[in-house]
Amino acid sequence: MIRKALTFCLFLFLINQSFANEKNRWFYSTTMTFSQATIENGVILSKTTNPNAVREQICQQLHFAIGQLNATSSAPALGSTLKIELNDVKPAGEDLHRIEYRATFLVGLGNAHPLSQSVELIIPGRADSEGIQQFYATYVKSCGLAYEEGVDTFFFYFRPDKPTCTVRTDPQAPFIVRIPMSLAPIAFSVPHVVPRYETVWADRTLRATLYFEKTHPKLPSGGDEFYTLLTQAYGTPLRTSTVDYGDFKFVRAFFKTLPGNLDVSIFNITKGNAKTLGRGKRFLRFLYRSMRHSDLIAYNGHSGYGKKVRNFAELVSHYSSNRYKLVYLNGCDTFSYINNSLFKSRTQMDVITTGLAAYVTQMPAYSLQLIQSLIEKKDKFDELLAKIPLGSPALMGNQPPGAVTK
User: Which range among 136-145, 266-275, 372-381 shows the weakest confidence by mean pLDDT?
Assistant: First the structure.
């Protein structure tokens, strides 16, 4: 699993370095302010000096900032904004090299827990498999949250400020490095303050694709609850179609609303996820037909510490047409995990992410709220985000060259 995480980090680096439209990116939130995080004197110990391998390990090392910043209601956008520059390499003994680097990335700072202009990150000195194993074995009991899930995900649960954790006060604490990180406020120019209602309703039909993964064996399906809420809000559908393949159920329902037609496709995943189901042509056929012309696409489920939500985002990018889309990635910490592959097409998107933990019980209601806002056509982004507040929502958007801005 650590090897898979490192592979993702290499993929992240290549995507971010080659992303051509980064200057057209913007971020917006009502619960967070944004700062540019800069690490001028980063240090990592590694057995390799291969540049790509070292960048992989630095990426994995910096993932330990996610849990530390979450503790202050803040979140680093590592997936979409991390940049790494390698500097000096020196021998460190025991076949290790001491490698210095510079790194930058965006951080969303929680309004409720403002941070100072400089933060000390406490992270593993080594981030290869052996180093992470050592770090985990040393600190899991004293510095990990009680519900941590093992070495692969310890980056999310490591808390150096936990009362039983002494790494901040013990200068001899092993297997760690202390890295100063400066924070400089940054403001983004938001090209539009409302979703593109005119574009959504240009053909007098709102098309929505809602994807729900089962979050717990004992919890009811989010897709079924969403459909119940949908019919309570808009009455009996004009027509429906349903197919159940066991591992997923697909429901399509049509409604009449004041602005025009409402065409809703619901994917109710009972077994597997977007990646495992994506190996079958049947699932992809339904997803392609639904996503391609959708105005609203919503993911509801566990983020899988980044893996699940990135797999879904890949499908969104691959199957989307060039028409405008509002995308909602409602899983834990999707602001930190989502990478720029979502924006590799020329599709113009406004993407709502979560800076902190998502709330499973609110997923059906929040998806319905987005549909209602698109139908009512009056909410600005600040009003829209205020209606789905749990999880600290943050908006990220792109403005591809030549895109229509009206």
Answer: 266-275
Q: Please choose, from the candidates 118, 312, 133, 145, the residue with its C-alpha nearest in 3D space to the C-alpha of residue 213.
A: 312
CA distance 324 to 232: 28
At residue 307, φ and ψ (nearest 5 deg) are: -65, -50
Radius of gyration of the chain, Cα coordinates, nearest whole angstrom: 22
Nearby residues of 15 by Cβ (< 8 Å), 6 or more positions away: 339, 340, 341, 344
How many angstroms separate the CA atoms of 351 and 397, rounded?
6
Closest C-alpha to 292, from 271, 310, 318, 311: 318
* Residue 256 Cα to chain centre, angstroms: 33
pLDDT tens track for 203-212: 999 999 999 9
pLDDT tens by residue, 272-296: 777 777 677 788 888 888 988 899 9
Beta carbons of 310 and 339 less than 8 angstroms apart: yes
Residues 6+ apart with CB under 8 A from 249: 223, 242, 243, 266, 267, 268, 270
H or E segment to which residue 333 belongs:
none
Query: Distance between CA 163 and CA 344 in Å, rounded?
Result: 43
Fold assignment, 197-397: Rossmann fold (3.40.50)
Q: In terms of pTM, does the model score above 0.85? A: yes
Helix H segments across 50-120? 51-62, 64-70, 78-81
Instruction: Please report which helix (H) or strand (E) contains residue 86, including its range.
Output: strand 83-93
CA distance 325 to 196: 9
List the domain boundaries for the chain: 2-185, 197-397
